[in-house]
Amino acid sequence: MARTSTAVYDFYTGLPTSSTDVDNGVTNATEYDALGRPTKAIRALGVTGLESWT
Fold first, then answer.
1. Burial of residue 16, with CB atoms counted within 10 A of its CB: 0-12 exposed, 13-18 middle, 19 or more buried
2. Are residues 6 and 21 in contact, defined by beta-carbon separation less than 8 angstroms?
3. Strand runs labelled E in 1-54
4. Interior angle at CA 51, CA 14 and CA 8, nearest 5
5. Which pLDDT score, from 0 to 100, does residue 3 have?
6. Is-contact 24 13, C-beta < 8 A?
7. What tens-digit pLDDT sequence spans the chain (54 residues)?
8. How far apart are CA 14 and CA 32, in angstroms?
């Protein structure tokens, strides 16, 4: 049995828009602003938020 994780990328920016975990099928999504900065992170159970990057 193969273990596969997947990622979906935006065609124009090349940024990842969603990913699916290998073990339990958890899907995460990220939204970006016009400059490519993450603005919203959506976790598997519908929890939204954004970590801060410096």
1. middle
2. no
3. 6-9, 16-20, 27-32, 38-42, 48-49
4. 25
5. 78
6. no
7. 677 888 899 999 999 888 888 776 677 888 888 898 888 888 776 555 555 544
8. 11
- The residues spanned by each domain of the chain are 6-48
Residue 17's identity, in one-letter code, is T
Q: What is the pLDDT of residue 2?
A: 74
Say if residues 49 and 42 touch (Cβ distance below 8 Å). no
Identity of the amino acid at 46: G
For 39, the token pair is 């603005």
Q: What's the CA gap between 26 and 45, in Å, rounded? A: 8
Sheet containing strand 6-9, strands side by side: 6-9, 16-20, 27-32, 38-42, 48-49
